[in-house]
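Incident log, structure service

09:12 report received: a user says their structure output differs between two submissions of the same chain.
09:20 pulled the input from the user's history:
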Amino acid sequence: MGVVERLGGGAGGVIRKASFPPVVDMSTRVLILGSLPGDASLAAGRYYAHPQNQFWRLLSSVIRVDLPAFPYDERLAALRAAGIGLWDVVASATRPGSSDAAIRDATANDVAALIATLPELRLVAFNGGTATKAGRALVHGVETLALPSSSPLHTVGVAAKQPAWDAIGAYLSDRPARPR
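09:34 re-ran on a clean worker, output below:
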């Protein structure tokens, strides 16, 4: 989706930005929810496109695949093969720049409706504080996990974030899903 409309007209107007469609399939066991794509991602039309975003590196450790080495479509295929899906909590909002702190007039995605279509889902993980705060109220009947943000604006290094992200791995194994 990307940019929906420019409000207020002209180059100085506020831009309403929108999330991408979900990347899921019937075998999704873990759904990772971000807040709203940043400007680099919106411009590229790809989740987590900013070169300093640590998302792909953090998940590489979880699924033991060098995701940054792959083209984008192969990254998504590797996530789906591992049972990981992606989406955002915010459907659209006004936001100058890419900082979550600047999100205004947000409309939420229908996360509950998506969850209802995922029979193997075991965990909803929130990528960062904004996604956690906005998303927890949208998720019912499935375990949740708050993750440290992969954003370059969250200046904690990968090594400090990795243990929290590695916890996702326990939900990807072949053990039976928990009842919902």
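09:41 both user submissions now match this output. Likely a transient worker issue. Closing.
09:42 reviewer note: The two ends are 31 Å apart (CA to CA). The chain has a mean pLDDT of 90.
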